[in-house]
Specification:
By secondary structure, the protein is α+β, with helices and mostly antiparallel strands. It folds into three domains: 69 residues, 3-Layer(aba) Sandwich (DNA Methylphosphotriester Repair Domain), CATH 3.40.10.10; 102 residues, Orthogonal Bundle (Arc Repressor Mutant, subunit A), CATH 1.10.10.60; 224 residues, Endonuclease III, domain 1. The protein has 23 helices and nine strands. A five-stranded antiparallel β-sheet has the order 5-9-8-7-6. The longest helix has 19 residues.
Length: 487
């Protein structure tokens, strides 16, 4: 069956599984919609299908105000796209084109600008600039609908260089000013000074498994997981604050609340959280690829919607991975808390969280690479060899020799990490899995994986070849089957 036939069936049945995976341009109205749009379905000859919202916009369609394409789960940057496009999309989501050029983006990806545009046209049907424009527009529209932020703050948060550019973009797209659109909206709410936005996820989403994984690894005083929420301290634009994430199952989304965090750079912050909770993972494609393995198939039935938890900060995760070498998860978490307590910057809970002061114990930022590059680590229970490895990694990060930029090849990062004494394949793959969000990263020597399958390392590697390019998700499923999950 051709893709257009599949899309047509999904459109007519309003199949929610395809929400965000393609968009429908309606020729008679000039708008583009999600597959789940509740409006009367137009005739087949009056519709066109697009792989992304940016492609529909570039074809001259404007977003539907009824189904609100900006609220669709993120378009998967995985299925059918090249590695270069996938990395490029992550960089654009992080603001690479807010002030930079396509040439600079292409340089970071190691290709020519012409080749990059050709790849985007082939895989997404839109140029990099169109993708960036649609991303900013959609994010601003969500802020207009979901918050009472002043329009100037919305413009700044969405990456527009000026309020004038912001207003022009909305008038050109919607034929209305941002203020007119807010007057039409009944979604804006006052959150008592705390900015809260919803991040749609792709169903199913196994929040319980995500919380279980993060709760065992939450660095004391830096992170905290409660029954239904995740909290952590952050430093954004030299201003400390706290982010709070909790599920909203009624709207199939993650509610992100920012306490003490300004709106500048909000788009990049939101993208970090999206990756941290892996909300855009194409779970149906992953399940389809992995279910051929009998053990994995049973785990998928028991734990649908598994995700690979990301990381707020790549350096922090690398330290945590080093601490986890050859010790239990609990022991590594204890050591991470001691390091944060001794070397992390002290912070206070923002006023909006004072009501939770008795239950939240967050008073440290995780220490910077510069701080740990000269740390002695004496008296905290860390063996000398492990302490030296952390110092070397910290020195490499502080000097710029190592970074966790999304544009780099994950294999190259692994090779760089393994050039440091004390870091092997397990640590490097774990960092690539969670910090760079490489869906195919796989710590094949992990004892937990071997135990879960009751195989040797020599048997596991060829068996895992069939799980490509989703080996990281297979690892998460296998870890989740153990009484004390790995990593």
């Amino acid at each position: 069956m051709q893709r257009s036939d599949i899309y047509e069936r999904a459109r007519l049945s309003r199949d929610a599984r395809f929400d965000g995976q393609f968009f429908i341009g309606v020729k008679t109205t000039g708008i583009y919609c999600r597959p789940i749009c509740p409006a009367v379905s137009p005739k087949p000859q009056n519709v066109s299908f697009y792989e992304s919202a940016a492609a529909a916009a570039e074809a001259g369609f404007r977003p539907c105000l009824r189904c609100r394409p900006e609220c669709a789960p993120g378009t998967p940057a995985w299925n059918g796209t090249s590695t270069t496009v996938r990395r490029g999309l992550r960089l654009i989501a992080g603001g690479a084109l807010d002030a930079g050029s396509i040439e600079q983006l292409a340089d970071r990806l190691g290709v020519t600008s012409r080749h990059l545009c050709r790849l985007f046209a082939r895989h997404l049907g839109a140029s990099p600039l169109a993708v960036a424009h649609t991303q900013r527009l959609h994010f601003a529209k969500r802020l207009i609908d979901q918050t009472i932020l002043p329009m100037s703050s919305v413009a700044t948060a969405a990456g527009y260089g000026s309020t004038r550019r912001f207003n022009d973009a909305f008038k050109n797209t919607y034929g209305r000013s941002p203020r007119d659109l807010r007057r039409r909206s009944d979604h804006a709410v006052d959150t008592g000074g705390t900015l809260t936005v919803r991040l749609p996820w792709r169903k199913p989403f196994n929040w319980a498994a995500m919380c279980d994984f993060l709760s065992h690894r939450a660095t004391p005083a830096v992170e905290q997981v409660t029954a239904d929420s995740y909290f952590r301290t952050v430093m954004v634009d030299a201003q400390p604050g706290v982010i709070e994430c909790r599920p909203d199952h009624s709207s199939d989304s993650l509610r992100l609340s920012l306490h003490g965090v300004g709106t500048r750079g909000l788009l990049r912050l939101v993208q970090r959280v999206r990756e941290m909770f892996d909300v855009d993972a194409p779970v149906a494609d992953i399940a389809q690829a992995l279910r051929a393995d009998e053990v994995i198939r049973k785990l998928l039935r028991a734990r649908p919607g598994i995700r690979v938890p990301g990381a707020w900060d790549g350096f922090e995760l690398t330290v945590r991975a080093i601490l986890g070498q050859q010790v239990s998860v609990k022991a590594a978490t204890t050591l991470a808390g001691r390091i944060a307590d001794r070397y992390g910057e002290a912070v206070e809970l923002p006023g909006s969280l004072h009501g939770l002061a008795d239950t939240l114990h967050l008073d440290r930022l995780f220490p910077t690479a510069k701080k740990l590059s000269r740390a002695r680590f004496n008296g905290i229970g860390l063996v000398g060899r492990r302490a030296e490895t952390i110092r070397r990694v910290a020195q490499a990060v502080a000097s710029g020799e190592i970074n966790f930029d999304n544009s780099q090849d994950p294999d190259q990062l692994c090779r760089t990490l393994m050039s440091i004494s004390g870091i092997g394949d397990w640590t490097a793959q774990y960092v690539a899995m969670r910090a760079l969000k490489n869906p195919d990263a796989f710590p094949a020597s992990d004892l937990g994986l071997l135990k879960a399958l009751n195989v040797s390392a020599e048997e596991l590697r060829p068996r895992a070849e069939a799980w490509r390019p989703w080996r990281a998700y297979a690892a998460m499923l296998l870890w989740s089957s153990l009484p004390s999950s790995g990593g």
